[in-house]
Amino acid sequence: MWVYIKNLKDYIGKEVELRGWVWRSRSSGKIAFINMRDGTGIVQVVVEASSVDEETFKNARKLRMESSLIVRGTVKSEERAPGGVEIHAKEVIPVQIPTEDFPINKPDHSIDYLMEHRHLWLRSRRQMHILNIRDAVLRAIRKFYWENDFVQVDTPIFTGAIGESAGNLFEIDYFDYGKVYLAQTGQLYLEAACMALGRVFNLGPTFRAEKSKTRRHLIEFWMNEAEVAYFEHEDNLKLQENLVSYIVKYVLENAREHLEALNRDISKLEKIEPPFPRITYTEAVKMLQKKGYDIEWGDDFGGDEETEIAKQFDKPVFVTHYPRKAKAFYMQPDPDNPDVVLCDDLIAPEGYGEIIGASQRIHDYDLLVERLKEFNLPVESYDWYLDLRKFGSVPHSGFGLGVERTIAWIAGLEHIREAIPFPRTLYRVHP
Ligand code: 4AD
Ligand code: MG
Fold it and tell me: Which residue intervals define the domain Aminoacyl-transfer RNA synthetases class-II family profile in the entry (predicted)?
């Protein structure tokens, strides 16, 4: 019976079939050891010349790194082995044996080399653990919304209106229509959908032609956005801290072994629960100035400033009420001070930067038109978006969570490029 390695402990004493690849192997005249992987784990296969036929033993000795193979044998409990079991082989059937050395075979390949071989690098244990954590994060996100009465609404990738800012758009030639853009955000479409369905979310790729080559930026990254009709700023903050706490808890419960394998300091993640601390933008600027940062009220924060703010807390921190001019056109002004908007950035602990951008949205028609003009955006391409303010407009709020930044934080990755299977960065779209 075909069994996956992670389930072997349920088959002690039984005969099983494994299908996978050689991770490492060594042999002498009488015995061969094959460390075999199948995507779910690694197990040692013992092939003894005295207990298999000649053909099988010859086959076992021919295998090299990343040969594909099928093994049939008995599961034995072995306390010293990782996973507590090993396989005593009866049959070893090579599927394909490489004719050259596997390119990823040293501990010290350069990052450029590894990125060039990303399609093979994915087979390493570290990448296997990271991709499992990514999978858990994506599952947690959907589960959270479905448990909280949200409807998933998939937003388009080709968009006619600028969703966020004009600075970093990918332009595409779209038949007779002319110029359209790859989505920077699905927010505008979720705003339409929340007026139809109340609570909505999306989860998908977004694109930004950002010339920044930092450990926090990708050109193509996944975003999870939520939008809720009748939600105001305060409701929005609560939703965000509940979501982020849920994701961390879910990963701790369902992918803990992968965090441990990466040596993640789990005690830091165990502290993540609501409520999260909050400071206003203005307070943050004062704090940074006191620490000697060269920053003025009105400037946006860069990575270093975010890290400094995060250092003061052991949970993610909300920075709220940014200056209107530092943020996007759609944000609702604070009724107590129209120079700032009802928004927040959620900054992750340990220097992982902004993981959420959020705000209450302008629901007044005239104010929205005024803002579109103030930001030099073409009002005519927002006709449908303005309609939402003409037909039963209500206060509403939402946010976007950067999926790879969240994964990088939870998994403790130094660079965001490992948080996505095939990263698109400033200098790389291959493979
Ligand atoms: O703060 P941003 O730009 O917000 C929006 O796009 C809103 N329209 C979302 C909304 O309210 N529905 O982006 C949201 C998050 C950021 O906080 C960050 O985590 C992530 O997306 N992000 C990036 N992640 C990786 N690489 C990049 N280049 C990113 N740009 C933003
Ligand atoms: Mg932002």
Answer: 133-421
> Within 13 A of 39's CA, how many CA atoms are on the CB side?
7
Domains of the chain: total? 2
Residue nearest to atom 1 of ligand 1 (CA): 357
Q: Whose CA is nearest to atom 3 of ligand 1?
A: 357
The whole domain housing 179 covers 118-419
How would you class 138 by CB atoms within 10 Å of its CB: exposed for 0-12, middle for 13-18, buried for 19 or more?
middle
Site to probe by mutation for ligand 1, drawn from 150, 359, 405, 428 as the one with most ligand atoms within 8 Å of Cβ, is: 405
Query: Cis peptide before 431, with omega less than 30 degrees from 0?
Result: yes
169: Cβ below 6 Å to ligand 1? no
- Assess whether 182 and 47 both reside in one domain: no
Question: To 5 degrees, how large is the angle CA 67–CA 71–CA 75?
Answer: 135
ipTM for this prediction:
0.99
What mean pLDDT do residues 301-324 have?
96
Asked if residue 427 belongs to a domain, the reply is no
322 Cβ inside 6 Å of ligand 1:
no
Full-prediction pTM beyond 0.80?
A: yes
CA-to-CA distance for 85 and 80, rounded, in angstroms? 8
Distance between Cα 365 and ligand 1 center (Å): 25
Tally the C-alpha atoms within 13 A of residue 288's C-alpha that lie toward its C-beta. 25
**Cα(13) to centroid of ligand 1, in Å?**
52
